[in-house]
Amino acid sequence: MRSILRSRRPKVFQDGPGKPLDRNAKFRIQTFARAWTAKHRQPGQHRGPLTRAAFEVLQALLWGFHNAHTGRCFPGYEAIATRAKCARSTVHVTIKVLESAGILTWVNRIVRVKKRELDLFGRPVWRWRILRTSNAYVFNDPISALAQPNSSKSENRSGTQNQESYRSSLPHTVRASLDNS
After folding, report:
1. What's the rounded Cα separation, in Å, for the pair 106 and 99?
2. Where does the source fall among the domains of life (predicted)?
């Protein structure tokens, strides 16, 4: 019953979403993870919900696999486990905990492969198979979440609706003079 109520994770055919992060953003994410685990520590827990292995998995993802310029990060569990020096099952559990903490999220990356198979009558046919390759991870920068307050009560943009179309219809020389003034 639980699997019915859970929402399905999106699947993408390309590299997946990416968010470029500079060095400071990566440090903010690590600091947020430490603060989150300190805030959610239960009595009797030594470190909190994020264990040492969780921080090593996070560090491996941020510093080992995340491309700072493109924002792409899609290693497999085995590669993460090797870099973080832990078990594959630990990576699986840790990524779920990191998502519940709001530190990262992911989508399933899939590819379409054409395979030659036999049909019911034994004749060779080509069939398309969809295979999951890996996950594409996206990190949530705590500063960008604070910079975009969602306290607006209206989804409508400010200004007139035809303001942009009017500006683009002006000749180039008029637009340039408006920009300089």
Report:
1. 8
2. Bacteria
Max Cα distance, the chain (Å): 77
Pairwise CA distance, residues 166 & 89, whole Å: 57
pLDDT profile of the chain (181 residues), mean per 10: 55 71 92 90 80 94 92 91 95 92 87 89 90 86 66 50 50 55 52
CA-based nearest residue to 59, from 30, 89, 31, 22: 30
Q: How far apart are CA 34 and CA 123, in angstroms?
A: 59
Give CA–CA dist 181/179, Å, rounded: 6
Q: What is the DSSP letter of 140?
A: -
State both tokens at 123: 């004749």
